[in-house]
Amino acid sequence: MRSVESIVAELPPSSSATAAVGEDGGGGWLVECHGLWHNVLMIVPSVLFVLYLASQAKRSFSKVSNGRSHVVAALYAILWLVSIFNLAWCLLQAWECAPGKQFVWSVISLFTTSGMLFLEVSLIAFLLQGNHASGREALTQTFLISTLVVGLDTFLKGIYLFGFGIQLFDASTNGSQWALWVVHKLLLTGVYGLIFFMYRSRWRERLPARPAFQNYISIMFCLNATALIACALAAHGAGFGLWLYNITIICYHAMYLPLLYVTFLADFLQEDDLHLENVYYSEMKDAGFFDVDWE
Question: Which residues cross the membrane (predicted)?
Fold first, then answer.
């Protein structure tokens, strides 16, 4: 009797398991490159978040239009744009491993990561302004800082990508991209770490008092510190470092935008003004900002 291996070897390519999965476009994009679970864990949260934004769009637009905060209005508009780019990036994961798509993949990745970094830097700049700046002044200062930082970051990445031909967004390359990522994560970890310890020091009164902001900084500090360790390990050829780096990428692209929305925008877009003031007062009271020494 002929062996199973010999029968399978004689089958035409179109009837093989690979073709059945979908080399001809019948669904293989979902399992290609990183595998099914990696893609699903990024695509599903991104799709759900965009659908949620769409379901709240009418109400949110009304709140933003009638609101007095230029920062919130600008962040909401940028959040929409970046969310669409991020969703496209998640859906096109198979392009990372497609030789003919490397240039397009690099461009999409560059735009997506730059947009998300712009939001990160904007929120850091907003927090560091404390409670002193407001309105157009806060918006101008925040976006000026963000534009300068993200512009420099994008310029350097563009040199790596299109000048030296180093594929920054392809984790399967020989490791020449890890030096830049180590520096990138080191800077972000340092900034988040600084704010993290400011919230736990005598300088905390210089920062907005909401505990939700403190939680946001704590989460981002831990995520970037983990990514820094992963990049350092991957730079030395450790397989665990590459695995850990992929985990941080999934967490970042799947959860960062919802985290930003919940932390900075949800209350402004969903609560009435009186209830919002009561929420802020309660959170500040719980944080100890109204403690008085009666002696």
Answer: 36-54, 74-95, 107-130, 142-166, 178-199, 219-237, 243-266
When the pLDDT of each residue in the chain is averaged and rounded to a whole number, the result is 80
Q: Is the pLDDT of residue 65 over 80?
A: no
CA-to-CA separations, 234 to 31, 105, 110, 117, 228, in angstroms, rounded = 24, 22, 21, 22, 10
Q: If we measure between CA atoms, which residue out of 260, 214, 201 comes closest to residue 49?
A: 260
Q: pTM here?
A: 0.80
pLDDT at 153: 94
Q: Which residue has the higher pLDDT, 210 or 290?
A: 210
From CA 172, how far away is CA 97, in angstroms rounded?
9
Q: How many CB atoms lie within 10 A of CB 39?
A: 20
d(CA 121, CA 176): 26
Q: Residue 275 in 3-state DSSP?
A: helix
CA distance 56 to 43: 20
What's the pLDDT score for residue 73?
Answer: 82
CA 83, CA 50: separation in Å to the nearest integer?
Answer: 7
CA–CA distance, 154 with 150 (Å, rounded to integer): 6
**At CA 120, angle to CA 110 and CA 190, rounded to 5?**
105
**Which of 238, 213, 223 has the alpha carbon at shortest distance from 289?**
213
With a cut of 50, say whether residue 275 has pLDDT above it. no
Q: Tens digits of per-residue pLDDT, 5-34?
A: 444 344 444 333 333 334 444 456 777 788
User: For residues 171 and 245, is the Cβ–Cβ distance under 8 A?
Assistant: yes
Locate 14 and state its tokens: 């179109």
**Calpha distance 142→136 (Å, rounded):** 10
Q: Quick one: which H or E segment has residue 245?
A: helix 239-260
